[in-house]
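We now fix the convention by which a protein and its fold are recorded. These numbers are not coordinates but entries in a learned vocabulary of local backbone shapes. A record is reproduced here so that you can trace the correspondence yourselves:
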Amino acid sequence: MSAYTIDRENNITVFTSSKGIEASGDETEIFSNPEDLAALADQWPGTRVVEIWNGLPGVEPVQRFTSRKVAVARIWKAIQHLKPGVGTPAQSVASNKTGANQKKKSRVPRPVSPLNTKTARVIALLKKPKGATLQVLMRATGWQAHSVRGFISGQLGKKMGLRVRSFRRNQERVYAIKG
């Protein structure tokens, strides 16, 4: 039967014999079944359980678990694919504490030029002498009609304080910035 250790850095190691576990150090906690893992997890703060999960390879990182019982079950299932070697530690799963932060950093939006935003495109279209039809604004932004109207009212009118007039020309709705 395999035994597992987890150290203070949340590294999980699989062992095949108790000799290897004894040599692993005093700062490790030992478990060999889901019940032992649950007993250990009851003593840990919730953030450590999340860090352990997020440090496992091939798992989808989470912000939190619905319960500690769910967390323990998922961690136990995820570490079962580790195969013990002969005698000493077989495989170690190192905690990837920076993995979640690196993902978040990669999602940071690129700086956008103020001239290349949808807001700038809409304003440029509305400043044309004849204004812009609702259909033209929809094509320029990729938005639906209600989104364009909401943007004109909320962002341009209320937040930016621009005076946008609306009128009909040849059975089409046209918007223009007064000025």
